[in-house]
Design goal:
The protein is an alpha/beta fold. It has four domains: 139 residues, no CATH class; 108 residues, no CATH class; 176 residues, P-loop containing nucleotide triphosphate hydrolases (Rossmann fold, 3-Layer(aba) Sandwich); 46 residues, no CATH class. It is built from 23 helices and nine strands. Helix 21 runs parallel beside helix 23. It starts with a strand and ends in an 8-residue tail after the last helix.
Length: 497
């Protein structure tokens, strides 16, 4: 069980090699934090919180193991479970009494380590340093998915070192329940002190940490973290750990490429089966829109937005695909569902839009589709703040209106916004769209052509098609649904006519 390191003979805790990589990372972060803070961290008071997280990963210098063994030989001399402890070899002592089972069992050394620490805190610090050295080596030599994914995310979104640090630390706090008590033990008299603590252990400037956590900053606007706690309410390092609930599952998945990871936020839209010929009633508008998108992508223009609106089923989404194809650009769509197939809220989809913009801005020749934006523009203007910042008010946070205005003015990727109605959209927002187009239900001759196209291959008369097309309320979506039903049931029903 013993190994030889530069510092001398060491003994690894039983089963330490079986620990999950993320658990090792969490323990490494916590121990580096404790050592970095020095006397600011009350080790004598809070050692049990540290041990609950890190006990299974401890690597013991033999000299310190022997000191603990001697201490327990006197402390537990009358206890049957500790009979003969003084006669054990150091590695036997750790094997028998140094196995962490998740509880403070009085047959393990951890039950008494707080007493030992009060008299021998320097020895405990040396134990923690030895463990840090071993954990750094083991995590450096191991491929850890969380680290790889955070690195990929940082590259795609061009995160700063401070932003990456916050994502990694917050992800560990969310992954490893026992890390949070240690973070809460790291008390701070001010936000600046908390920023300095984290900056010191991560080797980034405290100012960069503060900027990364600024309300309305990139981490929040990209939905990578929840709304930061107001600075005057920060009392410990745990208050800085605000990873978004949606992000953690994304960081723990395996991906073959950056695009695979970004599919949680955006993905290429499926090509449309329709062409410009299917939209003769808005052909002139379509050509202008295609020219706008083509010019915007070629010149890398910021703040180019198109608003398509109209009753459900009038072909707005397909029209967006048609004009993008006509412009020669590739269309991506903002994801509407999470990894479990559940619909995302307006807030979540808006923030997916932000991530999508950051991901696609360097690709060139791309257009973004943001469908069903009704819940991004609440009917009640007072709801806008809650939509983007959560249910609580946060002093110093940008308001929702300013946030949307900023997006419309600075988005690097041309974006097509689709809504069934624009009545709830503030005129101040509408003015920031370069083009508005209402897609009404197509005229009868267009409805007839759409019906004819969808029913091709079925034995239907021209009179039947004209009769259908004569219905003014018949939408392209309804025609498509009816045609699919007819194709699936044709010849399958006895006595069908």
């Amino acid at each position: 069980m013993s190994d030889v390191m530069d510092s001398g003979v060491i003994i690894a805790s039983p089963h330490a090699h079986l620990a999950a990589p993320v658990d090792r990372l969490s323990s490494l972060f916590a121990l580096k934090l404790v050592l970095c803070l020095g006397p600011k961290f009350n080790l004598r008071r809070d050692i049990n919180d540290v041990m609950t997280l890190c006990a299974r990963h401890l690597v013991w210098p033999v000299s310190i193991a022997q000191k603990v063994q001697k201490f327990l030989g006197h402390r537990c001399v009358e206890m049957p479970a500790w009979a003969g402890v003084a006669k054990l070899a150091p590695d036997e002592f750790i094997a028998r009494h140094g196995l962490w089972n998740g509880t403070y069992d009085d047959t393990t050394l951890f039950y008494y380590l707080d007493e030992f620490c009060k008299q021998n805190s320097k020895d405990v610090l040396a134990l923690l340093q030895c463990t840090v050295d071993a954990l750094e080596k083991s995590t450096r030599d191991t491929s850890i998915r969380l680290n790889e994914n955070i690195g990929m995310l940082a590259k795609v979104l061009a995160l700063t070192a401070a932003e990456r640090t916050l994502i990694q630390c917050a992800a560990l706090a969310k992954c490893t329940r026992d890390l949070r008590p240690v973070l809460v033990d790291c008390k701070a008299a001010s936000a600046a002190e908390a920023h300095a603590m984290l900056g010191a252990v991560a080797k980034v400037s405290a100012n960069d940490i503060a900027v990364a956590l600024k309300p309305g900053g990139r981490l929040e606007s990209l939905a990578l973290i929840d709304t930061p706690i107001a600075e005057h309410n920060i009392t410990d390092l745990g208050d800085l750990m605000r990873l978004s609930d949606r992000l953690l599952p994304i960081l723990l998945e395996a991906y073959e490429s950056e695009s695979a990871m970004m599919a949680a936020f955006t993905k290429p839209a499926k090509p449309s089966e329709l062409t410009l010929a299917d939209y003769p009633h808005v052909e002139a508008d379509a050509r202008y829109l295609a020219a706008l998108l083509k010019s915007a992508t070629e010149r890398c223009e910021k703040g180019v937005n198109v608003l398509l609106y109209g009753a459900p089923g009038t072909g707005k989404t397909e029209f967006a695909k048609v004009i993008t194809a006509l412009s020669g650009a590739e269309l991506y769509e903002v994801e509407c569902f999470d990894r479990d197939g559940q619909s995302l809220s307006g807030k979540e989809r808006y923030r997916s839009l932000q991530v999508s913009q950051s991901f696609l801005k360097g690709r060139g020749n791309t257009v973004l589709l943001f469908d069903e934006v009704e819940d991004v523009f609440p009917h009640n203007p007072s709801e806008m703040l809650n939509l983007f910042l959560g249910d609580d008010s946060h002093r110093g946070s940008v308001n929702g209106k300013a946030w949307v205005n900023q997006t419309l003015e600075n988005n690097p990727v041309p974006t097509i916004w689709i809504s069934n109605s624009i009545n709830q959209i503030d005129p101040a927002y509408r003015r920031r769209f370069q083009f508005h187009l209402e897609l009404k239900n197509p005229p009868q001759n267009v409805r007839a052509n759409i019906t004819k196209k969808h029913l091709a291959g079925l034995d239907v008369s021209a009179e039947f098609i004209e009769k259908l097309a004569a219905r003014r309320t018949l939408t392209p979506a309804q025609i498509h649904a009816a045609a699919r039903f007819a194709q699936l049931t044709f010849g399958k029903v006895e006595g069908q006519v």
